[in-house]
Design a protein that fits this description.
CATH topology of the largest domain: Spore Coat Polysaccharide Biosynthesis Protein SpsA, Chain A
Strand content: 15-25%
Radius of gyration: 21 Å
Number of strands: 9
Helix content: 40-55%
Length: 301
Amino acid sequence: MPKVSVIIPTYNYGKYIEKAIDSVLAQTYKDYEIIVVDDGSTDNTREIMESNYKNEVRYFYQENTGAPAARNKGIRASKGEYLAFLDADDYFEPQSLEKKVSLLETNKDIGWVYSDWDYLDIQGNVLKLASSQSSFASKNKLRGNIFKDMLRGTLISTPAVLICKTWIEEVGGFDERLNAFQDYDLWLRISYRHEIEYVDEVLAHMRVHDESISVTQPPYPARAIINRKIEQNYGDHIQSLGIEWCKIKASEYNYWGTVSLQKGDIKQAIKHYKSSIKKHPFQKRVYLQTIKAYLKLAGIL
């Protein structure tokens, strides 16, 4: 049985996936399996798997149902004690698994670990480090109990994490309703139960391009679902966040106001903008949006 299962969901990423798989094959740590879950690709992904990686990869095909469902299928098929998730357009540094497994094996109380990561353009040039961005856990090298930080919106990228399979199974895996922030939602649930460790080194690389989910999928529909789950499950913790949670909810209402305005539902837009202001009154931009909406409703604009 392999110690680590590396799960790679993919959808029409044939032009990237070889780099992802090759980065796993190049790992200094060798006790792993590679699981590719093809989420209904219509490009040459299947041909690449069958011609280049037939003996190195366990390949599964499913109808297009989204990345969370593909990852969950990979989890169910996995045999490893630890799971790593690598999107098909991203890749690992050669020592990624070795350094993370070593940390977990020497500290059995910590069942998940993450590293720093960076963002690359399609030519492979570094755009920025996650540790330079205030919303990411690696910014402050967070360790231990990070649940409250996660509630504030702190993010940990999926390819940066190595985690015990049993810890994912106990919280139910990825939420398949979410078109974005699936990793944030899962890590939030796990951070409520378990502490985390950090490797202060860039061990994963994420590509940013026009087909990236972060570019093509609007975040707030998913964020709204997550916010409702937080209010239902962790309501007693929200109070400790104070104004921070109010800002999170205000941003959500502001988003829906803008969406309503784009659809021509001006009254609904005004309702959402008012809810945003009620949650967080100090938003000059939202006041201006509300005034413009009223002027449109009156036929002045």
